[in-house]
Specification:
This protein is α+β, with helices and mostly antiparallel strands and about 375 residues long. It has 3 domains: about 140 residues, Gyrase A, domain 2 (2-Layer Sandwich); about 80 residues, 2-Layer Sandwich (Alpha-Beta Plaits), CATH 3.30.70.1400; about 80 residues, Elongation Factor Tu (Ef-tu), domain 3 (Beta Barrel). Helices cover about 20% and strands about 30% of the residues. The chain contains 8 helices and 21 strands. It has a 6-stranded mixed sheet, with helices on both faces. Strands 16-19-18-17-20-21 form a 6-stranded antiparallel β-barrel. A 5-stranded antiparallel sheet has the order 5-8-9-4-10, covered by helices on one side. It is globular, with a radius of gyration of 21 Å. The model has no long low-confidence stretch (mean pLDDT about 95). The structure holds (6S)-5,6,7,8-tetrahydrofolate. (6S)-5,6,7,8-tetrahydrofolate binds next to loops.
Length: about 375
């Protein structure tokens, strides 16, 4: 596939699109019916730069589903098997969202703004529709909509320094998955220490489309001597770090336990979760297949745009869903789903890529 995308109103622009284009974006993917940059200089140059400097990412595609009103807490707990009772305003939680069979509908970050107000920062599915359906079905008193909020991520080892220059030193005091309110040109924005990389950094939930480019420009200006550049979630880095991509590595057919997200489930105490009964069975027996880090030996693999079968001889024992050549580890890093009979670390398998068969090993852990 190497054709152009026709612009239209259905593919919404973001508050930062002008900056992304000026920085010379080379490729996009579509995510929540918006454009998400995937390459600026090259995936490998972007990777080295992310790990050594600081990048500014237009992740507006992480749309917010806002819940507000008296039944907000009750509705939030209906959506996820993670126990939210201990969650305080100012905290973010990574929350599996499941249907009545325990199937994953999304894997967003929940942002608790107040007891009666949340943002759900979604991955690539129409979660708003499910949330409205659940609320209507239970006649809950909650307002559900998509606010004019667009996340801008600042990621990389120099992100603390850059953010302090623009938002003040106190931004450095934020702990992981906590947020605060910070001023820029007289307006207040939520800033969290979070983001879709393992290099550290922040996410600015920019409120108001018109506030976007001034913040983008201020970050680019303040970070010149830090070698700041536009970036985007990096395929190689996120596979090394084991960060899952909904729609690629898992979908509605998978439970959180299959995705290795059992640590974010407290199904026993998540009273009200619509998938609770189904997940109690899964949690008791354990999954029969699970996400694993997979090393693929030999030559650089092609792009993974379909599932690649994982074979043990003639037996189909799983599949690879994401893969890339890692310059730092000098091997192909991958994410796969493997049947329990073959998921022990060290198990040697064959992977059938688009270009042929390559040897692969099931790893104990990801690369970071
Ligand atoms: N940030 C925000 N919204 C998002 C994403 C994000 N929405 C879409 C997508 N990313 C959702 N998926 C993820 C996947 C992983 C993480 C966050 C969102 C993540 N995981 C950490 C990890 O696995 O190491 C930490 C999880 C934890 O310990 O709580 O950060 O990136 N706003």
């Amino acid at each position: 596939m190497n054709a152009l995308i026709s612009p239209s109103r259905r593919l919404r622009r973001t508050p930062f699109s002008d900056g992304v284009e000026a920085a010379g974006v080379k490729a996009y993917t579509v995510y929540n019916r918006m454009l998400l940059p995937t390459v600026f200089r090259s995936v490998e140059e972007d990777y080295h730069h992310l790990k050594s400097a600081v990048q500014v990412w237009d992740v507006s595609v992480e749309r917010q589903v806002e819940l507000r009103g008296p039944d907000t807490a009750r509705l939030m707990q209906m959506l996820t098997p993670r126990d939210l009772r201990g969650m305080m305003p100012g905290q973010c939680y990574y929350v599996p969202i499941v249907d009545e069979t325990g199937g994953m509908l999304n894997d967003p970050v929940a942002v608790k703004l107040a007891e009666d107000r949340f943002w759900i920062s979604i991955a690539d599915t129409d979660l708003l529709l499910w949330v409205k359906g659940v609320a209507q079905g239970h006649r809950l008193d909650v307002l559900i909509d998509e606010p004019d909020v667009s996340p801008l991520a600042v990621q990389g080892p120099k992100s603390d320094e850059l953010m302090a220059r623009v938002f003040g030193d106190s931004v450095k005091d934020l702990r992981f998955f906590r947020f605060g309110w910070f001023e820029f040109q007289g307006r207040s924005h939520v800033i969290a220490r979070s983001g879709y990389s393992k290099q550290g950094g922040f996410e600015i939930y920019v409120e108001g489309h018109d506030a976007g480019m001034p913040i983008w420009n201020a970050l680019m200006e303040a970070g010149k001597d830090l070698d700041v550049y536009a970036g985007c979630p990096n395929l190689i880095e996120r596979i090394e770090g084991g960060l899952l991509s909904y729609g690629n590595d898992m979908n509605m057919e998978n439970t959180p336990h299959e995705c290795g997200l059992g640590r974010f489930c407290n199904t026993e105490t998540a009273i009200g979760c619509v998938g609770r009964d189904a997940l109690l069975r899964v949690a008791r027996d354990g999954p029969v297949r699970q996400i694993r880090a997979i090393e693929i030996h030999g030559d650089r693999v092609p792009g993974c745009d379909r599932l690649w079968p994982l074979m043990n001889g003639d037996a189909h024992v799983g599949h690879v869903s994401s893969a890339a050549w890692s310059p730092d580890y000098e091997t192909n890093v991958a994410i796969g789903m493997v049947r329990m009979t073959h998921w022990e670390p060290g198990t040697e398998l064959d992977v059938v890529t688009r270009d042929g068969v390559q040897a692969a090993t099931v790893k104990e852990v990801f690369w970071t």
